[in-house]
């Protein structure tokens, strides 16, 4: 028969062991909870910082695109006014730089929207644009775009249809030389259609007018200008989105 003292001693030992295991488990649980809290806090702070950086980068890119679009609109519009391609009311001609004040802000806003959409569309389609990703190529694209605009007011043809076909070929050549992406072509077409409709509404309401209109109230070559402008601004937006890091050619 076991003695009473042995029974009490064995019970006290078992209780002590259970207490030690329980305290150890509680300690591990508290440490794990503490580590998870630290990891969650670090990830939350990192996400917040990344979100702030992305927002600041998006605003900075938008401002750059707005400035470029407004400047190009001002210069190219003055060129068309000097060549009597577009006619504004007399009171408009007395304003700053002899141009309508609302044209640069509108074109700047459009350039910011289109320039920000291009890299977003590339990312959405899962096909990053890698063709000629360098600032030298972007600057050449801008030069060709300005040349196409200059040709629209300098070249003399028998009719506007011949001029429109010539500018259409030049615009497609610009896209093929500096873009060659489906997203760039599709967004360029969309930009051309929407911008042309908006211009038609402005001319219809008498804000300004075109000389010798042959496509409703505007010139038939105007969509070509908008298409090449969309591709040009899109290339600028793409280059800004990649932070200006130069990439090797992927011709």
From TrEMBL:
Native organism is: Cottoperca gobio
Q: Where in the cell is it found?
A: Endoplasmic reticulum membrane
In its keyword annotation, does this UniProt entry include Aminoacyl-tRNA synthetase? no
Task: Give the family per the record.
Answer: Belongs to the INSIG family.
- Gene Ontology BP term (one): SREBP-SCAP complex retention in endoplasmic reticulum
Question: What keywords appear on the UniProt entry?
Answer: Cholesterol metabolism, Endoplasmic reticulum, Lipid metabolism, Lipid-binding, Membrane, Steroid metabolism, Sterol metabolism, Transmembrane, Transmembrane helix
**Which protein are we looking at?**
Insulin-induced gene protein
The UniProt entry lists membrane topology as: Multi-pass membrane protein
GTP-binding: present as a keyword of the record? no
Pfam families hit by this protein:
INSIG (PF07281)
